[in-house]
Write a structure and sequence with these properties.
The complex is a heterodimer. Chain A has helices at 50-57, 80-85, 103-108, 122-135, 151-164, 181-196, 208-214, 237-245, 304-311, 341-345, 352-357, 374-388, 404-416, 434-449, 461-467, 490-497, and strands at 11-21, 24-34, 39-44, 65-70, 73-75, 88-91, 169-173, 200-204, 217-222, 225-231, 263-273, 279-289, 293-297, 319-324, 335-337, 422-426, 453-457, 470-475, 478-483. Chain A is an alpha/beta fold. Among the domains of chain A are: 1-87 and 210-246, Rossmann fold; 254-325 and 421-505, Rossmann fold. In chain A, α13 (404-416) packs parallel to α14 (434-449). The longest helix of chain A has 16 residues, at 181-196. The N and C termini of chain A lie far apart (50 Å). The relative contact order of chain A is 0.11. The radius of gyration of chain B is 19 Å and the shape is globular. The termini of chain B are far apart. The chains are: A alpha/beta, B mainly alpha. The A-B interface holds A 58, 60-62, 79-85, 90, 92, 96-101, 105, 108-112, 114, 117-120, 161, 400 and B 148-149, 152-155, 157-158, 160-161, 164-165, 167-175, 281, 290-291. The structure holds adenosine-5'-triphosphate and magnesium ion. Magnesium ion is lined by residues 50-51, 93, 173, 403-404 of chain A.
Chain lengths: 505, 291
């Protein structure tokens, strides 16, 4: 890090207050600063106010009071346009892409090179982006339509958007939540390069390992207030955890013994096409028994999503069979925690309690078949909110006002409490803070102890190792490895994930 | 029946298509930006009335056309105010504006010409003494410009962005309201121009003379899958159906049946022929900044 003097500071937020509802400040007199050539980690629980603070710096939200100083000069941001002009760029927690646009169109949108008459100079733009791709080694196909791409690739588009705009101050809101270890490493290489070129990088993350590995300083938020500003090399994972939660946490999950004999899910020689019509699943067979947690590892986009969707009946299969025990019983269904919770998991215009019973409204508890029993629904959601620690603790809050992590908790709560023998879970703790992750892990284990069969898709290998009874690795639409979590490790799984190794056909 | 495919028939088809085509292309701009524009009907009618007023007072066809553009734009600004600035329901605003346009044109017709149903006859395009129909030329030009504007320009890209994902556009510093206003105002101007053609073709104003063409134009745009060329082709299809209607009217087939044809065609095409038509993802939804 360079010498830090008061006048070299690139970002200064002074005494920022922002409140969405009376009585609670999402940002409560926050002070924050960052320097050029620094990677500054911003951490804190779900709902602590991290995204809110950064949205204020990016001009998306306006603070109720407080000041923003960019390179020492006071700045007034009425919209992102103002922030972009001063070199501030942000990759949002929920991507901001136009699905129908090509990758290139998404990158240049808002900052287009033009000929006369407003006509876009696609050639020049493309050349520019290709150079950026090269110098930062970011690989995306510029002519692909953005909507169908894997989240990992969509994120690369978002980062290219910033680079294209020459952002000097780059905010990344939980960029690693959706990446594989390899992709994260790639991203961190990029970030290190950016840092060396003198950019200011603000990184929001829940993963303390990452904070320690890459950041220079850390700011911790709790319930809207700053609880610590630290030099990374003078702190530890324990100290940070304590600052985040306000207490020390013990991370112990006790694994149970393997499950019973009854087969719940049997997939036989399955073939599935992806959205573009090419083969996504290329002959997969697997069996999950009651009480078993079957982990699937793999780099995003190797068919995991298609497999989950097919099992849940969301995608047509082209060949093969999927048998689920007891699925003809109308009272039962498959529980599904989807990877793209914004698209499949929630209705953001609905209230929290409505979201908590979504898809379950026919259950005896919640209706008599025709009319919803609002009282029961409310009671149920109060219990769930308490148990899962969803914030704000208000059943009538609109889903879109919940922080990313709390939305995830709501989906998890709804699906885990559903009466079903099979639970299909994609990335259950993506975006969750440490406490919430622990909680979700415990819940998954408890539900499996009750006899539920669980298909667990995750790119977080430590999570898979911790929870699974079996791990299968998917590569190119096939299961290329079946591993015993007791005798394997992250490195070995990684080799299977990248196709270096295979212990099947 | 052998005269059906004569040059005159083709020309008539084109002529009939004009008052569909102009508002339909207008609708492309409005809806690409995310604003449903059912007010086309009222814009068309106001345009027709304004054209007659302009010619009546100045004796100049060109002034009439300018007046029609202005009238269309004024109605579209109202639609914009209601739906973009005040974020009211776009369909309701459109219907209200149509009723409003119907009433106010009738009112001024009575006030100025002494009859609420008819204006006196005014001069038309023949006063320019051109050997061809200038409106056909204008239509072709506007179609070309629209295809180009939507697909190749910065304006088009941003317009589509606010219609698909306004939040993303907003996050890139694009003003969602500004783009949506532009889309709606262009649609107003084009619909007003369509009204001018109706009035000039008939040499007068009659109450309610738009006769549902604004709605059909909107349907054509949907049948054309929100694309300018698609919309244009659909409009020609309607022009063709109506042209047949005129041909057959003297042939003994009940006229009611024949007059039904264009509408029947709309329903059939809408219901089955075009396959899945996907509107812009945020079409019809007012954009609320989360703050
Ligand atoms: N648009 C909004 N409307 C209403 N309340 C909001 C809105 N955005 C955030 N909040 C509230 O502000 C608080 C802080 O939310 P924020 O999204 O900043 O949290 P976060 O630290 O980013 O959490 P996470 O790690 O879960 O993403 C939460 O209580 C949230 O419910
Ligand atoms: Mg957040």
């Amino acid at each position: 890090m360079r010498e830090q003097t008061a006048n070299s500071v690139s970002v200064q937020l002074i005494d920022i207050v922002k409140s969405f509802q009376a009585g609670y400040n999402a940002n409560d007199h926050v002070n924050f600063s960052a320097y050029p050539g620094e990677i500054h980690a911003l951490i804190g629980e779900n709902g602590a106010g991290k995204s809110t603070l950064m949205n204020i710096l990016y001009g998306m939200y306006q603070a109720d009071s407080g000041k923003i100083l960019i390179n020492g000069k006071e700045a007034k941001f009425r919209s992102p346009a103002d922030a972009i002009k001063l070199g501030v760029g942000m990759v949002h927690q929920h991507f901001m892409l136009v699905n129908t646009f090509s990758v290139l169109e998404n990158i240049i949108l808002g900052d287009e090179d033009t000929f006369r008459f407003d006509v876009i100079d696609m050639k020049r733009s493309k050349q520019k982006v290709i150079e950026l791709k090269k110098s930062f080694e970011i690989n995306v196909e510029l002519d692909d339509i953005s909507g169908g791409l894997a989240v990992g690739i969509q994120q690369k588009i978002e980062i290219l958007k910033l680079l294209y705009r020459n952002a000097e101050i780059m905010i990344l809101d939980e960029p690693t939540a959706i990446l594989t270890p390899q992709e994260t490493e790639e991203l961190f290489k990029t970030l290190a390069e950016l840092k060396n070129s003198g950019k200011t990088i603000i990184l929001i993350t829940h993963k303390l390992g990452e904070v320690l590995a890459i950041s220079d300083r850390v700011t911790v938020l709790r319930r809207g207030k700053v609880t610590g500003i630290l030099k990374t090399n003078q702190t530890s994972s324990n100290e940070l955890a304590k600052m985040i939660t306000g207490r020390s946490i013990e991370s112990q999950v006790i694994k149970k013994s393997a499950g019973g004999e009854k087969i719940i899910l049997e997939v036989n020689d399955l073939y599935i096409n992806n959205d573009r019509g090419s083969l996504a699943i290329n002959g997969i067979s697997l069996i999950i028994k009651e009480g078993e947690i079957f982990g699937i590892a793999g780099v995003e986009g190797n068919g995991q999503e298609e497999l989950a969707e097919a099992i849940c009946g969301l995608r047509k299969i082209s060949k093969g069979t999927i048998n689920i025990a007891g699925i003809d019983d109308f009272k039962k269904s498959i529980a599904h925690i989807p990877a793209n919770r914004h698209k499949y998991g929630i209705v953001k215009e609905f209230t929290l309690e409505e979201n908590l019973i979504l898809g379950r409204e026919k259950e005896e508890n919640f209706s008599n078949g025709w009319i919803l029993n609002n009282k029961k629904i409310n009671e149920f959601s109060e219990v769930i909110i308490e148990e899962y620690d969803i914030r704000p603790e208000n059943s009538k809050a609109l889903m879109e006002g919940l922080s990313g992590g709390n939305q995830q908790k709501a989906v998890a709560a709804r699906e885990m409490t559903k009466n079903s023998d099979l639970v299909v879970i994609s990335h259950p703790t993506r975006g969750l803070d440490i406490l919430a992750s622990e909680f979700v892990h415990r819940t998954i284990l408890e539900e499996s102890k009750k006899g539920k069969a669980i298909l667990l898709i995750s790119s977080d290998l430590s999570e898979l190792l911790k929870l699974s009874d079996k791990i299968a690795v998917m590569y190119n639409g096939r299961i290329t490895g079946e591993l015993d979590p007791k005798s394997t490790n992250e490195n070995e799984i990684g080799e299977y994930m990248t196709g270096l190794k295979s212990n099947k056909r | 029946m052998q005269e059906i495919l004569t040059a005159a028939f083709v020309l008539q088809t084109f002529r009939i298509s004009i008052p569909y085509l102009l508002p339909s292309l207008g609708a492309v701009y409005s809806e690409k930006g995310g604003v449903v524009n059912i007010a086309l009907e009222g814009m068309l009618l106001s345009g027709a009335f304004a054209a007659i007023i302009g010619i009546y007072y100045t004796g100049s066809v060109l002034t009439g056309i300018v007046c029609s553009l202005l009238a269309g734009i004024i109605v579209s600004i109202l639609h914009g105010l209601i739906t973009i600035t005040f974020k009211a329901n776009q369909i309701v605003s459109g219907i209200a504006l149509n009723i409003f346009a119907f009433g106010i044109t009738k009112f001024f017709c009575k006030l100025i010409f002494g009859s609420s149903s008819n204006s006196p006859r005014v001069i038309g395009l023949e006063s320019w003494g051109l050997p061809f129909n200038p409106f056909l030329l204008i239509c072709v030009l506007i179609l070309i410009i629209t295809v180009f504007a939507i697909n190749r320009t910065k304006f088009g890209l941003r317009l589509k962005a606010v219609g698909q994902n306004p939040e993303a556009a907003d996050s890139l510093g694009i003003s969602v309201s500004k783009m949506r206003y532009m889309g709606v105002i262009i649609s107003g101007a084009l619909a007003g121009l369509g009204g001018a053609w109706l009035a000039l073709d008939q040499h007068s104003f009659t109450d309610g003379m738009s006769a549902g063409r604004g709605y059909i134009a909107l349907a054509a745009m949907i049948i054309g899958k929100w694309k300018p060329t698609g919309a244009a082709l659909a409009c020609l299809l309607f022009g063709l159906a109506e042209s047949f209607t005129l041909q057959f009217q003297s042939s003994g087939v009940p006229t009611q049946f024949i007059q039904m044809l264009p509408y029947l065609l709309t329903i059939i095409v809408l219901a089955g022929f075009i396959g899945k038509a996907t509107p812009p993802a945020a079409d019809g939804i007012p954009y609320e900044k989360k703050d």
